[in-house]
C-alpha cells in the first residue's frame, strides 16, 4: 500500500468544528493550500506529517476528488463553504464559524477553524 | 463635478474579466464575492473575477467602492480584508448595513441592491470622497 500517515486537526482558539482526521491516499494525495503567499505553514505541516503532497491552489487547480484536505485562510464567506459543499475536509486558519449562503454545508465532520500548526498532531 | 475633496485617491482599481453563474443568486443574499483571475476553478462559479491595475491598499470605512456606475460607501472592514484583496484579489462585499464586520473577511455597505457586474466593468476603491461632500458625514445618494 502506501506510507501515508494520519493526522488529527483540532480547532484552535476561538475556532469551530472538528476535530478532523486526515489521511491522504494514493487516489487522494493532495494537501490543497488555497491561501495567499504559497503553501501555508499549516498545510506544510499536514503534508510533512502525512506524506501527502502540498499543492498551491492559486498556482493551478486540482479536481475535488484528489484533495485529502483543503487549507484555507478564509475570512468567512466563500472558500469556507465551497469545499465542504463538495465534501472536502476543510481547515480554516481563521477562527470562522458557519456563515453565508453556504453555511448549511459546513459541518463539524467536514470543517475545523482557528487552526495553527500546533493544532496538527500525529495520530 | 465640483466640491470634491482635494485628496481623492484611487487605492484599488480593477477590470472585471468574468462573472460566475452563481453570482446573481448570491446578490439575493446581499453578497458579492470577488477573486483575482488566478483563483482556483472551483471558486469561479460564485465569484466575479477581475484583473487589477492599481493595487495599493485595501478599503477603509469611509472609502467609496465604485462598481460600474454604482457607488457604495464602506461602513466596516474586517481584519483580513486588505490581505485578501492585495494577495488574492479577494473581497466579500456585504450589503448588510453593518457598522462592525461580523466576519474577518467582511466589507460592509448599506443595505441596497448590489449590481450584477459584467466583463469589462470597472471596480475601484476611492478614498477621500467621491460621493461625500467636503463636510463629511453622510454620502450623497443623488449625483
From TrEMBL, chain A:
<dbReference type="GO" id="GO:0009401">
    <property type="term" value="P:phosphoenolpyruvate-dependent sugar phosphotransferase system"/>
</dbReference>
<feature type="modified residue" description="Phosphocysteine; by EIIA">
    <location>
        <position position="74"/>
    </location>
</feature>
<dbReference type="Pfam" id="PF03612">
    <property type="entry name" value="EIIBC-GUT_N"/>
</dbReference>
<dbReference type="GO" id="GO:0008982">
    <property type="term" value="F:protein-N(PI)-phosphohistidine-sugar phosphotransferase activity"/>
</dbReference>
<dbReference type="InterPro" id="IPR004702">
    <property type="entry name" value="PTS_sorb_EIIBC"/>
</dbReference>
<dbReference type="GO" id="GO:0005886">
    <property type="term" value="C:plasma membrane"/>
</dbReference>
<feature type="domain" description="PTS EIIB type-5">
    <location>
        <begin position="3"/>
        <end position="123"/>
    </location>
</feature>
<protein>
    <submittedName>
        <fullName>PTS sorbitol transporter</fullName>
    </submittedName>
</protein>
<dbReference type="InterPro" id="IPR011618">
    <property type="entry name" value="PTS_EIIBC_GUT_N"/>
</dbReference>
Automatic annotation (TrEMBL), chain B:
<dbReference type="InterPro" id="IPR036665">
    <property type="entry name" value="PTS_IIA_glucitol/sorbitol_sf"/>
</dbReference>
<dbReference type="GO" id="GO:0008982">
    <property type="term" value="F:protein-N(PI)-phosphohistidine-sugar phosphotransferase activity"/>
</dbReference>
<dbReference type="InterPro" id="IPR004716">
    <property type="entry name" value="PTS_IIA_glucitol/sorbitol-sp"/>
</dbReference>
<feature type="modified residue" description="Phosphohistidine; by HPr">
    <location>
        <position position="50"/>
    </location>
</feature>
<dbReference type="GO" id="GO:0005737">
    <property type="term" value="C:cytoplasm"/>
</dbReference>
<dbReference type="GO" id="GO:0009401">
    <property type="term" value="P:phosphoenolpyruvate-dependent sugar phosphotransferase system"/>
</dbReference>
<dbReference type="Pfam" id="PF03829">
    <property type="entry name" value="PTSIIA_gutA"/>
</dbReference>
<protein>
    <submittedName>
        <fullName>PTS glucitol/sorbitol transporter subunit IIA</fullName>
    </submittedName>
</protein>
Amino acid at each position: 500500500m502506501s506510507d501515508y500517515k494520519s493526522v488529527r486537526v483540532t480547532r484552535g482558539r476561538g475556532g469551530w468544528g472538528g476535530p478532523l482526521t486526515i489521511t491522504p491516499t494514493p487516489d487522494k494525495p493532495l494537501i490543497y493550500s488555497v491561501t495567499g503567499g504559497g503553501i501555508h505553514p499549516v498545510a506544510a505541516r499536514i503534508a510533512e506529517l502525512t506524506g501527502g503532497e502540498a499543492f498551491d491552489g492559486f498556482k493551478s487547480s486540482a479536481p475535488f476528488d484528489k484533495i485529502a484536505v483543503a487549507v484555507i485562510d478564509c475570512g468567512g464567506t466563500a472558500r469556507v463553504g465551497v469545499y465542504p459543499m463538495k465534501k472536502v475536509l476543510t481547515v480554516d486558519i481563521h477562527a470562522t464559524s458557519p456563515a453565508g449562503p453556504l453555511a448549511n454545508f459546513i459541518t463539524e465532520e467536514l470543517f475545523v477553524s482557528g487552526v495553527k500548526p500546533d493544532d496538527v498532531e500525529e495520530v | 463635478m465640483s466640491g470634491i475633496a482635494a485628496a481623492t485617491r484611487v487605492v484599488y482599481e480593477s477590470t472585471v474579466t468574468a462573472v460566475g453563474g452563481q453570482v446573481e443568486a448570491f446578490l439575493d443574499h446581499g453578497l458579492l464575492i470577488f477573486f483575482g483571475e488566478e483563483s482556483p476553478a472551483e471558486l469561479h462559479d460564485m465569484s466575479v473575477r477581475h484583473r487589477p491595475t492599481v493595487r495599493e491598499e485595501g478599503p477603509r470605512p469611509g472609502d467609496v467602492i465604485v462598481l460600474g456606475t454604482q457607488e457604495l460607501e464602506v461602513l466596516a472592514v474586517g481584519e483580513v480584508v486588505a490581505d485578501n484583496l492585495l494577495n488574492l484579489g479577494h473581497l466579500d462585499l456585504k450589503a448588510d448595513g453593518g457598522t462592525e464586520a461580523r466576519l474577518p473577511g467582511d466589507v460592509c455597505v448599506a443595505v441596497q441592491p448590489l449590481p450584477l457586474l459584467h466583463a469589462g466593468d470597472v471596480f475601484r476603491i476611492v478614498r477621500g470622497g467621491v460621493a461625500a461632500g467636503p463636510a463629511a458625514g453622510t454620502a450623497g445618494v443623488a449625483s
